[in-house]
Amino acid sequence: MPVQEEILHSPDRCRCCGTPFPADAPTKGYNGRYALDVVAPTSGSPGLEVRHTKHVYLQRQCSCGHWTHAEPGRCAENTDWQVELTEWHLAGPMLVALICALSLRQRVSRRGVQEFLADWLGVSLSIAAIHQCLHEAGRAVAPVIERDIVPLIREAELLHVDETGWKEGNQLLWLWVFTCTTATLFAIGRRSRRMLHKILGEAFVGWLMSDGFWAYRDYDRRLRCLAHLIRKAHGLDQSLDPLARPFGAATLALFEDLLQQVYQAREGPQPPADLYQKNRGKLDAFNDLCVDHWDCAHEKTRQLAREFTHDWEAIWAVLEFPRLPITNNWAEQALRHWVISRRISQGTRTEQGSLAFALLVSVIETCRKRGVSPWPYLAQVVQQRRKGEPAPVLPEPAPAP
Ligand SMILES: [Zn+2]
């Protein structure tokens, strides 16, 4: 591919004594590198343009005798990462963002990305180089997650959390998602209390909407997704088992009655009446029914009865606070795309790969939640971080149309 542009970099001051070089100080070649990048379409210029640039690094001699040379940017070493974050890499920041978009949003395999770049852009990159771009982008955004996303998650008034199985090499792990109104955080790890505490901290005081995993019980203000419980009750109601059916039917009838009241309370005067107190009699009777089925011979009935008993407060919190959500749709929606990715890619292969994946996906989903495109931002982060500079702040939510 012909080089379209040559950019000269010369040192502006002596690295030994600090004396600035005069603008016309003589220079001598030191070394150089090639960079391939894409120029993203703008409203005035549609289409994707590829640019091949040669960067030449020059050196100058100071009156003190010392030779100083300009050099490509490089982020200080970080033992958490094997990949380097540096301008020495062939792929420019926007090309790195394009590779992330193809791989993560479009769910194209590494080989598919390679084929697409070669066939449509005339850019030939090795599989290893594509892999390196994804890891480098993951490393580049790591401080953004810590600085701009984690605090929003930990301080959220209402947080939806969910987890789904995830393969990392031969290990069975979990892909966790935490999402609030303005941010979404992903993490890959074990399904354990330690993992949960590592992310949420122990001081989380918001409402936590989750499934029935026991470690969530450490948090006081909990909500359960009622859609899941209703689905289970339906299953029992439809079964042929004489023990299951009446329990399923009673559960469904209670939900129908109470949810009707929740919807009405949302429309009615504020603050709404305490529906828990109002329905005390029905709830006490249902609690007795759950206790009666604690040792039920039918397994799924027994499990559901115990689930109600264990999570009683979390399940019925919405009666006291009817404005709170009754399903975990936010978290399920945030996971949906990545559940399909998992089917296609069979998960990630290494710990480093999982980390890069979770970090990038957190930035992508947070930008999507905010109604802004993640790609120009991602390119900007890679560009700044390769120079050793801090990452720019995540884009604010787009104004409502
Ligand atoms: Zn000098």
TrEMBL record:
Source superkingdom: Bacteria
Pfam families membership: DDE_Tnp_IS66 (PF03050)
Residue ranges occupied by any Transposase IS66 central domain in the UniProt entry: 90-353
NCBIfam families in alphabetical order: transpos_IS66 (NF033517)
Name of the protein described by the UniProt record: Transposase, IS66 family
Protein source organism: Thioalkalivibrio nitratireducens (strain DSM 14787 / UNIQEM 213 / ALEN2)
